[in-house]
Records
---
Amino acid sequence: MMVNKAIFPVAGLGTRFLPATKAQPKEMLPVVDKPLIQYAVEEAYAAGVREMIFVTGRHKRPIEDHFDMTFELEVALEQAGKRELLEVVRSVKPDDMECIYVRQAQALGLGHAVLCAQRLVGNEPFAVLLADDLMVGPQGGQGVLKQMVEQFREWRASILAVQEVPAEHTKRYGIVAGNAVNEQLVDVSRIVEKPDPEVAPSRLGVAGRYILTPGVFHEIANQPRGVGGEIQLTDGIAGLLRREKVFAYRYEGKRYDCGSKEGFLQANVELALAHPQLGPGFRDYLQKLDI
Ligand code: UTP
């Protein structure tokens, strides 16, 4: 059982990041020197995924262009002898990686976006990555999706990435509850979308990484609209729970919520500090700031 396909839902409206997202998807916002979507695609590739399925909305062009060949740019860099930059440009899409695009005509919710990719996924397990959650694996360790693929190989069931969230933030997440299998894994018995802290079944919030079995498509299709009038992925997973095992996995690493301005700024500062070329100079700059 391999996870060879990943869905990247990139059709949301990105209202929390206006005006930057007025005419471009938030997934194209750069953190240091790469757009968010490229971090997510690289994470999926490192986990063994080779078929990348983008569910796009009205701003689809920049994402398609980013993963396409840029012939004039490559020729110009080659003629100028800029081999390192040429490599940077070419490495965005390795030869053995396939990019496929499907349109979500209306942003009816994350569950609906995933459902739009059903025919392309077919009857096999698949990953879902929300690129506005930028995930950085532990230093020298594996990326978050790769950790999840290993859990999937062992348990052969859907795996949701989770983390403890502050009680006052349960309203921002899908929240799971269940029995601990070990220190990192919970056998999920309940999942609720964006509960108020008083009714949240736990403080384990789902981050934007999932490995799902194809049975979830049927469940999403049969759910009524959920929180916010949207077709929610969480409700589809709640349906799946009645038929199959679903595990929540406490991933190792750090998540930046780049769908919010604060999280995006934090990611930029921390990833710039960790950048091999930019880091030292940027650290000096920050230290000299009179704050
Ligand atoms: P968000 O909940 O962050 O929604 O979606 P959003 O519309 O992008 O952003 P805000 O809240 O208005 O600022 C989570 C992920 O699901 C995708 C988004 O692109 C994002 O990656 N999504 C959401 C879709 O592709 N389609 C939808 O209908 C909703």
Note: Residues 9-17, 55, 104, 107-110, 112-113, 130-132, 259 surround uridine 5'-triphosphate (CB under 6 Å).
---
Amino acid sequence: MGKTLSEKILSTKSGSSAQAGDIVVAGVDLAFVQDTTGPLTVRQFRAAGFKQPAGSLKAAIFLDHAAPSPNRELANDHKLLRDFAWETGSLLSEVGDGVCHQIVAESLAKPGALIIGADSHTVTAGGLGAFACGMGSTDVAVAMALGKTWLRVPESIKVVLSGRFASGVYAKDLILYLIGLIGADGATYQALEFGGEALSAMSVPERLTIANMAVEAGAKVGLFPSDEVTRSYLEGQGRDGDYQPLSADDSASYVRTIDINLAELEPVVSRPHTVDNTAPAREIKGTKIQQVVIGTCTGGRLDDLAVAAAILKGRQRHEQTRLVIAPASRAVMRAAIAAGYIETLLQAGALILPPGCGPCLGLHQGALGNGENCLSTANRNFKGRMGNPEAFVYLASAATAAASAVTGEITDPRDFS
Ligand code: SF4
């Protein structure tokens, strides 16, 4: 029987013929932590008596969630992580470099790799054809030391994409639509594997946005094949040698197949307080918004800033709506400056934060007040997510976010076309 993408990658990484349901021990290529999960990993690593990460993998530490540190406790966590990185020779991504998942995509992930991270949105790298998943801090500590981990090979859902997005509709709308369709537990411990003729016109940044949110449907991974689009992205990053073609076998077995015609989609918004509580933007337009956030590992890439700048050019944010921009990485920030997007956003009244997670998880840089509504390009809108259980978070594309920043209320971006 043919293999899914998950089965193929985990077969190679485990040296066995892996089938869905099997438990495998697989070699890890990259194990990483960030600054909220990393301190426990470091303590567990040391408590277990480990001295060095395994030579067979790359270990990486990212200071991105509270960057720069907003208080002494988090500053001390950063110090612990820096000391660990310097002692062990692990890669250290400093404050201001950006969100772990964006940097992994830009410089570390490659097709066919096994990547684990102490962060649930590690799934993002599935956009490049890597089997990438989040794990607990202790699991990552052990994998870092041993160079391998155990996994149950997931069953796969095949998502077949056809057609092209209409104007004003983006990858974020697709993944919100899909999560609304199957529910927040619709793919629990399964792989969402994307395919179909639409992929030939779907960029890697779009794929990263979609893979990033696979976990919001409970998926273990969100996986794209590695194709010519992947090759050209890696070439653009100066990483030609990391490319390898990768696709599922035609005879692979799936638990479910979902067909989506991109041309039939429209702008979607997730309403508080669950990601699968979706509605077309046009149905809830008029909802007042006090803060718009364009950033994060889901919606803070160069393409997102370009879309936002195109809508905001020559316009101003609504006087009662704050506009917060957090580029996903230093590379994104530099490219956005070079392209003039940052200047456009500043002229529109935006506040530009340093590259990093920004206000996404409510640690700093934009926590919400009681009763306030935020429209964000992030991936989660759980109660209290942005620092206040009395506030409300809506999720949407950068286009919907930018259009809503202008009007001060949820707006269908097609109204600006
Ligand atoms: Fe997590 Fe948000 Fe940071 Fe992404 S941007 S890693 S979702 S806190």
Note: The mean pLDDT is 98.
